[in-house]
Structure prediction request, 369 residues.
Amino acid sequence: MDAVLLTRNAYSLADLSLCPVFQRKWSSIYEAIQDTRPQRNKLMRLYIEQIPKQGRIILAGDHTAWSRPDAKTLKERTYEHYTQGGFGGRPVTSGYGYSTIAWVPQTEGSWALPLRNERITSWENPIDKAVWQLRQVCQNLPSRPLTLWDIEYGCAPFVIKTAGINADKLMRLRSNLCLWGEPPEYSGRGKPRVHGSNFILNDSSTWGEPTQIIEEEDTQIGRARIRVWHKKHFRKAPSYSMSIILVERLNSDGSLPGATPMWLAFVGHEMPPLSETWKLYLRRFAVDHWYRFAKQRLHWTVPKLSTPEQCDRWSDLMPLMSWELWLARDIVNLYPVPWQKPITKLTPGRVAQAMGGILARISTPSVFY
Prediction:
């Protein structure tokens, strides 16, 4: 871990043994990945102890791919969505998928601190894995969190499977979905209706009057109009009522600029104020920043490991190093290179760049082993 934090560029796992803080032979790196057994549940509880008890806890969930198209003998490979090229120009690759539940500590910035980061096995799917992870995390949290989810999780199976978990959910929806309202009162004849009138997201004639509508200026997207409709549901989940939120960007004259609107669904006990709810969802993108940071700076996908167990043990170090950087952010002394701009809020990359000064003061645990 010390070698990873101090090595900006690595082309193989063995490159980390060239770092001055690595005091063993290069083969020890592979032996460590083979022999280590990280205690995920204990680490998760340790991470949760660092979350402040005051304020609402914001969690974000997503999954990403570790592309291994050339590892033909690697066990349990699956087909994963991969935007950076794939088979025949299609955004699909073979490799491993990893599901992550992360705490988002700041209202702005790129910090996302994973509580669980685990491989989606060949007999699981992203939704079932996320549901299992969310249940494990929420059982140990001191209060009910607000969880943020991307389009893939905005579906009836996810709503049904997470219904018994002590967490509110804010999910993004595909713009071609058809939702349903509450059924009318029972007329006393025939089978009671389950659904009311339909609510087609890309057909404004089916929307009806919103429960609330506001317009406001935002520093990131400019002028925005936000509308909300309550008591809607998925066709396959009629028992779980949702609040549907539409976020649209506006020009200065109030007209639509043609940008794709954002549809959100809230499921939970009490929705935050409408002016805050859609901004809370924007914090979900911190998970995407963490995936990029883990792959590019923590060298997550650099090793060409030969077994799924080795990949899992190596991946277990990514959250641990991220939390180490978060806890060190207040004590590092920045030494930016000449072409770096000054910043007021530290990013994970800047803290990693300054970790050498901390290790020089406190040494490394391997010295005392």
